[in-house]
Design goal:
The chain has helices at about 10-60, 70-80, 105-110, 165-200, 200-210, 230-275, 285-315, 330-345, 360-380, 410-415, 425-430, 435-445, 475-485, and strands at about 85-90, 95-100, 120-125, 125-140, 155-160, 325, 350-355, 355-360, 385-395, 395-405, 450-460, 465-475, 490-495. It is α+β, with helices and mostly antiparallel strands and about 500 residues long. The longest helix has about 50 residues, at about 10-60. The two termini are about 90 Å apart.
Length: about 500
């Protein structure tokens, strides 16, 4: 059955219930109707056979010398009170010898023609009749009948039964069944509609919630407890989608707020400096100095925008997926050479110990290590140490970067990987970073299937603290077996 395309799911289910119920009841009705009809046919056949047997017994069982008229009188007595039964007795030549309720028979039957064989139905005088014929042989010498050549008499008895009441009952039964089937189908459709309407209530709530969603109402959630098992997965998926949308929108809002906040200062500086420069005529050198200062601010803004775009790509899972064997000791050594002059100027000692190998994007991993090393240099006091420890631990490569210096307060340790977080004012005084380096590092580590965390505490018996950044990345074990450094190997940069 093809349903209209615009029909609702509730209506479809209701029609399906109605169709299934009607089909089932029609099948049951047909089976019952045929069973009742067959039962009546058996009863009618049994009645006809019984009446024919009665006729034969009355005609054949009597004394041979008994007149035919008396025997026929006995037939009348036997059929007395059976208003629904008729009998026609014909001789061998088709002449009517005797008739009981002849109105049941057709003119042709009364004329001795078209005598039926077996049980045959017909209609006569507004009656539905079924009849059965049987040949009867009587003994010779019976008065008033024709005899055959051997002295015996042949007759044909036709018994008819009025089955109009049976037909009427079957018609009423069929009408009752069709009426019952129709009412049952309508009831099933109503009950199906009600069940579907109540069962699909969670879907309507999903629709209502979806219509109410806005940027200010992303915290809406559907109740899962009262949802049917079939709809619970949809409700869970919908709530999960809302949670992801809320988280994404919150990140977007935070991103917009952060970038607006961080760009406000350099843009304000540029505007103020430009306005001051335009207040009066200045020399070429003075203008060149203003432009150089503006260029520094533009470079800062460009770096900030590039870093924010990098973080946006990382959060969307769109970072490059290059994979190669990366020896972290080599990358750390290259970074130490790059920062050697800065470390020497600040009186900071950098030490690298151990080896470790991973698979990933070399440039991204170098950037992550560079951000951590740069952060350590900014917060390590003169005469302090930075230690880079590399090792394999099971199936992971561990990188530990320790630096001496002021410990990070406990309330700040969980937030240092957030965008634009620069800690306390004392820690901000050590550098002018935009606060994106650690956030970028975390994104790179997560993109490589690793994790990163920080620990910071005051060293026992001293006035200085130690801050440790720990990275764990999936190790490149095949390369680790061939590149392991001798125990206690050390690379260092010292002032």
């Amino acid at each position: 059955m093809r349903l209209p395309p615009g029909l609702s799911l509730t209506a479809r289910l209701a029609l399906l219930f109605a169709a299934l119920t009607a089909s089932l009841l029609i099948t049951v009705g047909v089976v019952i109707g045929r069973a009742v009809e067959h039962h009546f046919q058996e009863l009618d056949d049994h009645e006809l056979v019984g009446k024919l047997t009665l006729v034969a017994n009355l005609l054949q069982g009597a004394d041979a010398v008994l007149p035919l008229a008396e025997r026929l009188s006995r037939l009348d007595d036997a059929f007395a009170g059976h208003d629904m039964v008729a009998m026609l007795l014909l001789d061998a030549e088709g002449r009517v010898l005797h008739a009981i309720q002849p109105g049941f028979f057709t003119p042709a039957q009364l004329a001795g023609k078209d005598l039926p064989a077996g049980s045959v139905p017909w209609t006569q005088g507004g009656h539905q009749v079924i009849g059965r014929a049987e040949r009867i042989t009587l003994q010779a010498g019976m008065e008033g009948h024709a005899s055959s050549s051997d002295g015996a008499a042949d007759m044909t008895a036709l018994v008819a039964l009025d089955v109009s009441h049976h037909i009427h009952f079957l018609d009423e039964l069929r009408r009752g069944l069709w009426l019952g089937i129709s009412l049952a189908a309508i009831t099933a459709a109503l009950l199906g509609w009600l069940a579907a309407h109540r069962g699909l209530a969670p879907l309507r709530r999903v629709s209502a919630t979806a219509r109410q969603l806005s940027a200010q109402r992303l915290d809406e959630r559907l109740v899962e407890d009262d949802a049917p098992a079939e709809v619970r997965e949809l409700v869970e998926a919908f709530n999960g989608m809302l949670a992801r949308l809320e988280a994404s929108f919150r990140r977007l809002s935070d991103f917009s707020a952060d970038i607006a906040h961080e760009l406000r200062t350099p843009v304000s500086n540029l505007m103020t400096q430009t306005q001051v420069a335009l207040t009066r005529s200045r020399s070429t050198d003075e203008y060149r100095e203003v432009l150089a200062s503006n260029m520094e601010e533009f470079e800062r803004i460009a770096r900030m925008v590039a870093d924010m775009l990098f973080l946006a790509q990382a959060e969307d899972g769109r970072l490059p997926g290059a994979s190669e064997a990366v020896a972290l000791a080599d990358e750390a050594t290259a970074l130490i050479e790059f920062y050697d002059a800065l470390a020497e100027a600040q009186g900071v000692r950098i030490v690298v110990e151990g080896t470790a190998s991973v698979r990933g994007d070399r440039l991204m991993l170098r950037r992550a290590l560079s951000n951590l090393l740069s952060n350590a240099l900014r917060h390590t006091p003169a005469g302090g140490n930075i230690r880079i420890g590399l090792r394999h631990d099971g199936g992971e490569a561990e990188v530990r970067i320790d630096n001496d210096g002021e410990p990070i307060p406990p309330e700040q340790i969980e937030r240092i990987f957030d965008r634009f977080h620069r800690g306390s004012a004392d820690r901000r005084s050590h550098g002018e970073g935009a606060g994106l380096g650690l956030a970028i590092t975390r994104s790179i580590v997560h993109a490589h299937g690793g994790r990163i965390w920080a620990d910071s505490a005051m060293a026992a018996g001293t006035t200085r603290g130690t801050t440790t950044f720990t990275l764990r990345l999936p190790a490149n074990l095949s390369a680790a077996r061939h590149t392991a450094a001798p125990h206690g190997s050390t690379l260092e940069s010292a002032p």
